[in-house]
Amino acid sequence: MHHCDCARHDTGPGHPERAERLTAIDRAIVGYPVSQHLRFLRPEPADHCWIEAIHTPDYHRYIEETCLSGKGFADTGDTHISPDSYRAACLAAGAALRAVDEVLTGRAAAAFSAARPPGHHARTEAAMGFCLFNNIAIAARYAQLEYGIRRVFILDWDVHHGNGTQEAFYAEPSVFFCSFHQHPHYPGTGAAWETGTGNAKGTTLNIPLPAGSIRSDYQSAFESRVQPALDAFAPELILISAGFDAHRDDPLGGVLLEDEDFGAMTRWLLESAHRHCGGRIVSILEGGYNLDALGRSVRTHLEALVAGAE
Ligand SMILES: [Zn+2]
Fold it and tell me: What separation in angstroms does the CA of 230 have from each of 184, 227, 272, 275, 283?
């Protein structure tokens, strides 16, 4: 699902995180067989209370005021904003919540939120890495507080480490955060020794991979490390931080995944989801900056989700 106002988040000329990303996804889906199995929904902006389930009220106000002020960027220079960015950010968070609603009420077997700005770098009190609100962290909290879901497993396969999501749940044993990412690479976090703290020790699992990694590297790590962790955790819902910038054609990453590898990773997770939580998967768009590769990769991701729901 997406909302056309997400395209009004204007990051300026030459910025890789641009409105055309959503158009490219539309173009790669509409008219293809997979689209006959999809319902396209329009989200509402997330209620303030859900944004503030992850972010501080001060930060929420800062983002609203900074966007409307026309300052041009929030916190870090790479996170460009425009007057419409606040509404787009509330819609992107709202799309993640609506995706959770669809799956947890049983109206959909799986859901994909194709909204922007992305979220996984956004910290509780700071914007960074093109992200304003942490959509997936907000969605995880919402699933817990609104639907009583006890254990949420987040798999983040964006080529960059989801530092904001990790930070949100680093001391939280009810949300397992697992990330595949290129390392060393932006934002620099995500070492294998970062595993959680206190009684959440062991509910963060980082799989740092060198540039040049391919599907078999992901597959062997999934089978030997992720799947056992997932089985031991026995989630009631699986969320995917679905970035497509680990594609070999992506300008912002050095990992060499192909279109079809995103379908394969989806199937690995679906198998686990069927074992533990009735196949319930909510996938939320993060990065992916080569428009053609992004469109095709999202299509294989959705084809796998559709096939897994049948
Ligand atoms: Zn990324």
Answer: 25, 5, 8, 10, 17
- Measuring CA to CA, which residue among 294, 284, 263, 297 is closest to residue 110? 284
Note if 121 is an active site residue: yes
Q: Which of 2, 60, 120, 121 is flagged as catalytic?
A: 121
Question: Residue 47 pLDDT > 80, yes or no?
Answer: yes
Which residues lie across from 154 on neighbouring strands? 177, 239
> Over 70: is that where the pLDDT of 1 sits?
no
Cα of 105 from ligand 1 centre, angstroms: 30
For the chain, the domain total comes to 1
> Which tens digit of pLDDT belongs to each residue from 145-200?
999 999 999 999 999 999 999 999 999 999 999 999 999 999 999 999 999 999 99
**Dist CA 184 CA 208 (whole Å):** 8
- Which CATH number do you get for residue 115? 3.40.800.20
Domain of 59 in residue numbering reads as: 4-309
Surrounding ion ligand 1 within 5 Å at CB are 158, 160, 243, 245, 287
pTM: 0.98
